[in-house]
Amino acid sequence: MKNQEFLKVGGTDMLSGDGNLNYRPEGVLETFYDFQILRNFHFTLDYQFVTNPAFNRDRGPVSVFGTRLHWEF
User: Fold this and answer.
1) d(Cα 50, Cα 23) in Å, to the nearest integer?
2) How buried is residue 2: exposed, middle or buried, by Cβ count under 10 Å (0-12/13-18/19+)?
3) Tag placement on the chain: N or C end, fewer CB within 10 Å?
4) More confident residue, 4 or 48
5) End-to-end CA distance of the chain
6) Are 56 and 45 in contact (CB under 8 A)?
7) How would you class 42 by CB atoms within 10 Å of its CB: exposed for 0-12, middle for 13-18, buried for 19 or more?
8) What does the domain layout of the chain look like in residue ranges?
9) CB neighbours of residue 26 within 10 Å
10) What local confidence, expressed as pLDDT, does residue 48 receive?
11) How many CB atoms lie within 10 A of CB 52?
């Protein structure tokens, strides 16, 4: 049995399902900005907008925010 069939009959899995999925293409838009604090120290802000996460039209859209520190020595 394929995973799609398993979910359609009510099965669940840890990534994409809590039952019958309503499949649609997933879309992701990401933007980020890197701030150079010092010559070898950077701070980055990140934003992602996800439509139909895990290819499921019944979920989302979802906004994901992130940060990163990068230090070279």
Assistant:
1) 15
2) exposed
3) C
4) 48
5) 52
6) no
7) middle
8) 23-73
9) 15
10) 97
11) 19
Measured on CA atoms in the order 56, 25, 32, 15, is the torsion positive or negative?
A: positive
The SS3 of residue 5 is: helix
Cα separation of 53 and 57, whole Å?
8
Beta bridge partners of 27: 51
From 4, 36, 29, 27, select the one nearest 17 (Cα to Cα): 4
pLDDT at 6: 77
**pLDDT number for residue 15:** 65
More confident position, 1 or 67: 67
CA 36/CA 16 separation, integer angstroms: 38
The one-letter amino acid at 9: V
pLDDT recorded at residue 46? 98
